[in-house]
Design brief:
Layout (H helix, E strand, L loop, with lengths): L8 H14 L9 H6 L6 H6 L13 H45 L8 E5 L15 E10 L5 E4 L5 E6 L4 E3 L5 E5 L6 E6 L3
Antiparallel strand pairs: 1-2, 1-5, 2-3, 3-4, 6-7
Length: 197
Amino acid sequence: MCGENGSKWKEYLPIVTLVDRILVKRTTGYSPFELQFGQQAVLPIDIETNTYLAIEWNKISTTEDLLEARAIHISAKEETKLKAADKLRYSRKKSVQYLDKKMAHKLRNPLQPGDLVLVYNKALESQWGLILKKCWNGQFRVIIQVNEGPYELEELDGTKLTRKFAASHIKRFHPRGKIVHLDSESGKESSEVKLKI
């Protein structure tokens, strides 16, 4: 289309940009044009063949007609946006569920309730100069794994975290050294357990 060396791209850019704006996107079920303006794009072919998109605005002669036409247009735009938002939410939910199911069993055996974990801080990946910063936050305790996908976690004091965490962003925490268990009544050491390092 643009030639072997791509030198003709300037000729096709306006056409390709228009086509991209009027094509229906999988995630929303609507074109960007329709989301922006609340109606499908009227193309030259629509005017030539007199499709339903070619509304004759010149036939509107009274204020009432104009108000009615604009009200229908605006309400259709809002309805379109709401439908697109619902479809986008559903599409994202399905993508997350697919990724969680795909990744959860590939990473490890599922974590059990009560396991201590660290959570990966993905925000640090894209920040310049923070590559060597602490990327794992925690420790947190696993509450439950939801539908073989994300995990619900809590702080060590039992405070539940509001969001769920993908299995790919969690790793088991392995404490080092010795663990000293305190007797809750006396506050004295009741037993010692040495861990292999």
